[in-house]
Amino acid sequence: MKYSRHLLPTLQERLNFYPGMVLLGPRQAGKTTLARQLAGMYPDALMLDLERSSDRSALAQPELFFRQNRHRLVILDEVQHVPDLFAALRPEIDADRRSGRFLLLGSASGKLLRQSAESLAGRVGYLELSPLLASEVGVTTATLPTLLLRGGFPPSFDAPSDAMSGVWREDFIRNFLERDLPQLGIKTPAASLHRFWRMLAHVHAQQFNASQLGQAMGGSSHSTVGHYLDLLVDALLVRRLEPLAVNLGKRLVKAPKIYIRDCGLLHSLLNIPDSNTLHAHPVVGASWEGLVVEQIAAHSPSGTELNYFRTAAGAEIDLVLTRGEKRYAFEMKYSTTPKPTKGFWQAMKDLDIAKAWVIAPVEHAYPLAENVAVIPVQGLPDVIAEAIAP
Predict the structure, then answer these.
(1) Environment class of residue 43 by beta-carbon count within 10 Å: exposed (0-12), middle (13-18) or buried (19+)?
(2) Which domain CATH number covers 15?
């Protein structure tokens, strides 16, 4: 099924300004489909898939290729497979610095950003495409359980049954570990990283403790555990949410929180096959939290910061969005009658929160207190736009 991705207008706008754009996102999130939609808007756009040897051959002489195609939008998919291209792009952009010349698609953020930052600083912009969002699939309270169980990767969400969705996700995990990582030159054993990934699933939405995980993996060192985490964060499959750093005269929790970024992958890693099993599983609340965190991150524009907040005394907010000098709070409750804890209200006072929302599986928004409202997940784009309005 074809979906209208919320990032398309922003991508068009940025391409009208920058000579090139880098579109990042995990494999199978829909980058190629979005790029094809964009290509249809540009006469003579040229798209190459750099996983294909024939398309890589076309770039055997990149300087000549780029010079001969200056009149086109050139789209390069899976560009991390040909890292030498970045060195050729810089002089080409400088030779003909027009907007809308290049769109680079990549599935590995850390490696790709390091390469492009060195040579293309100031010449390209960056955007990240997440898997499908609630606002993009037109989710309702009736279809929300499907998104929560299967996650947002289009082949998983659109599968004809929960069982086939689960098969696709298991294949995705295996291919990522056994094929994608080795192609990027990463030599970490697939079995070790799979085991680590499963362990992360068990601490989803909790503080990251490298020592504990290292012990659970048979005594792996702190640095090894950190390296494994970096690999999954760079691949855009795990989110590391840092705590809010504020000086309140109170002892703050300083460890980052860890999320499996797609809740469908989370459930596959935990062997949760269907909605009935999920709703009977203790992870369901944390799974909902992770789903909503990804929605907020995807709809938050550049210039915003996302953190969580927790004190040793128990004051806590799931997600704090900072925009300039104002802070906004988001609390996630998987309940049709959500009731924030005492720690939430205390944190509201500690941080002088301007406005807060409790995101729950409800049909309609309603006020909970002054400047605090309960909203459905599909209402997030509107409240975030309202919060950051000048």
Answers:
(1) exposed
(2) 3.40.50.300
Task: Return the closest-CA partner of residue 21 out of 3, 4, 39.
Answer: 39
- Between CA 373 and CA 353 the distance in angstroms is 13
Instruction: Fill in the DSSP letter of residue 243.
Output: B
H-only helix segments in 217-353 = 222-234, 263-269, 275-279, 284-299, 342-351
Is residue 286 helix, strand or coil?
A: helix
Q: Is the pTM of this model over 0.90?
A: yes
The encoded tokens of residue 375 equal 């909203």
Which domain, by its residues, includes 197? 134-387
Angstrom distance (rounded) from CA 105 to CA 117: 15
Spatial neighbors of 188 by CB under 8 A, at least 6 apart, are 181, 227, 228, 231
Residues 55 and 170 in one domain: no
Q: Tens digits of per-residue pLDDT, 96-150?
A: 999 999 999 988 766 666 667 677 888 899 999 999 999 999 988 889 999 999 9
Amino acid occupying residue 381: P
Full strand arrangement of the beta sheet holding 326-332: 304-310, 316-323, 326-332, 355-359, 372-375, 366-369
Same domain, 124 and 148: no
pLDDT tens per residue, range 159-189: 999 999 999 999 999 999 998 888 777 788 8
The answer to the question of residue 3 being in a domain is no
DSSP state of 388: T
Is 267 among the domain residues?
yes
What's the token pair of residue 101? 């010349």
Task: Indicate the residue among 128, 151, 183 that finishes a domain.
Answer: 128
In whole angstroms, give the CA distance from residue 315 to residue 31: 39
